[in-house]
Amino acid sequence: xxxxxxxxxxxxxxxxxxxxxxxxxxxxxxxxxxxxxxxxxxxxxxxxxxxxxxxxxxxxxxxxxxxxxxxxxxxxxxxxxxxxxxxxxxxxxxxxxxxxxxxxxxxxxxxxxxxxxxxxxxxxxxxxxxxxxxxxxxxxxxxxxxxxxxxxxxxxxxxxxxxxxxxxxxxxxxxxxxxxxxxxxxxxxxxxxxxxxxxxxxxxxxxxxxxxxxxxxxxxxxxxxxxxxxxxxxxxxxxxxxxxxxxxxxxxxxxxxxxxxxxxxxxxxxxxxxxxxxxxxxxxxxxxxxxxxxxxxxxxxxxxxxxxxxxxxxxxxxxxxxxxxxxxxxxxxxxxxxxxxxxxxxxxxxxxxxxxxxxxxxxxxxxxxxxxxxxxx
Length: 377
Hints:
Number of helices: 13
Helix content: 25-40%
Oligomer: single chain
Mean pLDDT: 94
CATH superfamily of the largest domain: NAD(P)-binding Rossmann-like Domain
Distance between the termini: 35 Å
CATH class of the largest domain: Alpha Beta
CATH topology of the largest domain: Rossmann fold
CATH architecture of the largest domain: 3-Layer(aba) Sandwich
Low-confidence stretches: none
Radius of gyration: 22 Å
């Protein structure tokens, strides 16, 4: 079975879907691994690094795509490139199936079995394949680094002959995977951290990291079966806004992580809250590219409102592309390895398996994922 790894078509993407370590593991399984020349350059891997572990190098991208039985990549395929894929091949990548209906339809029409890495179910067995969580961990770390770089003061308390500098106040909204890593990073850097999450059940996790949990009574909230926060009502969002106003005004850094999978992000920090912050303060909006948690933030831009810097950078793991590549490549290998037939050296799509049912979007010229199939498109 030939596993092909084309170079990412987005020039801004420095992460790579396969590292030499993971390539060797696939070769050891019995796969024929072919990577496009310079595929690993963004994260510092040379073609020689791949050939030394048994992979082959392809210089013709179209030929690589046309001949591969399986394609591994990070970003969704270009629409124009789908027709070049080998009919019946397995394509594994991020896919954004809720919003990329045209791409999903094209993959189905061409007979591609498309697996969406965003749709890996959150179960104990699938943790090792969960790319959303692995990348969110790094994104949470990056938010604090970006904020510290833009902030007009230091994060830790510092005692000097000139006097004592108080620690910076950091307010984090959302204690999911990214939020928890942001908490841990900000605490390691010496900041005083306060956190709010719509799920009271996470208060203990927040406190175990040394942060204060801000309690706001929103009524019935809870979380989904996959551990995500449930979408709030309009009334609950307003209660949350009112309850966190003072915490935001007192903070030097605000980090927002609230996203609803497949939908527009809720606006939970309004412009008047931004304007109430001290000049020189910083807000990092992790949801900027899905509509934004902060009124006035712009995807992939820095906006200054009354002296407060709003950072709306997307693809945060790309800032630490080397480690992001290692983690994503490990997720991909674990997925392939889980369903690899070692006797026949091939990947088996077990349609009865819960994980495959969750992440397989198209197969045999049909959209087979029940959630995506039932979307109003």
